Amino acid sequence: MAMLFENQHKPVLLAEAIKYLSPIRGVFVDATIGLGGHAEAILDRSENVELVGIDQDKQAIEIAKQRLKRFGDRVKIIHANFADIKLVLNRSGVEKVDGILADLGVSSLQLDDKERGFSFRFDAKLDMRMNPDAQTRTAADLLKTLSEEEIADIILRYGEEKFARQIAKKIVMYREAGKHIETTLELAKLVEEVIGGRRREKIHPATRTFQALRIAVNRELEVLEKFIFDAIDVLKNGGRFVVISFHSLEDRLVKTSFLRLSGKCMCPKNFPECVCGAKRLIEILTRKPVRPSEAEKKENPRSRSAKLRACLKRCEE
């Protein structure tokens, strides 16, 4: 089963991730194990490495388990959100780890599964939950219940969509006519009607709106911030942390979190004293984000927007 998706899902920035993670010996965490591509490379690097994998997608976990079966008890995979990394490690009997990797991209498995409602390439229920078993609101639920202003704010903030207000207005007008947006193609068509030919970008007109709703449904940014700080907390001194992000909001959050954890005060310049709580806990290893090579982008177009940032936990003074 793992081989079925191998051609569709190529681990992004694989060599670069392994370089910065440096898995020589100890316990490592793949916090978004997905189909197991990065995890396999980590375990292959050294027989002295053990790995704890985390993912909230049960279907992906089953594929990863088959892919990594040959490593036996060197790998343990847990169904959870990476924001619960402390709880997962505690229940696994692990106190501190030597390295953590997080690939924040939506997997090909999820995008290509028309039942999940992530993509407007298929007509499906507008779901977008990373964990479809979670008792949380779907994208369709948000569009049914939120106000025009709340919908516009989500699309503007998380999608950086300049037509956010017009799209939100159209959604509410549709709702007031006694209709509800239930499927991916319904939403995509509505957004196309609003934007029309006004955008010169090559991306589909609904791309930013779909991204925004997915982030809102899964609370991705607030969960990510918690995860970053908890990840540093569970790293051993000298342990390494690698994050691969795929859009500007994620990368910006990773960048500012790393800067704050490196001791840089993030308070406005006119503040008389620091109140942001910046502490020098890490050393940043990537002055600028690492990007895919031209060869990788050509071979795997989904890697185009990827950015890798890495840091090392400083020894306590």
Architecture overview:
By secondary structure, the protein is an alpha/beta fold. It has two domains: 2-109 and 220-313, Vaccinia Virus protein VP39 (Rossmann fold, 3-Layer(aba) Sandwich), CATH 3.40.50.150; 114-218, DNA polymerase, domain 1 (Orthogonal Bundle). It is built from 14 helices and seven strands. It has helices at residues 2-6, 14-21, 37-45, 58-67, 85-91, 108-111, 139-145, 148-159, 164-176, 184-195, 207-218, 220-234, 248-261, 294-299, and strands spanning 26-30, 49-55, 75-79, 97-103, 235-245, 282-284, 307-313. A seven-stranded mixed beta sheet has the order 3-2-1-4-5-7-6, with helices on both faces. Helix 9 (164-176) packs across helix 10 (184-195) and helix 12 packs parallel to helix 13 (248-261). The longest helix has 15 residues, at 220-234. The protein starts with a helix and ends with a strand. 43% of the residues are buried. Residues 1-8 have low confidence and may be disordered.
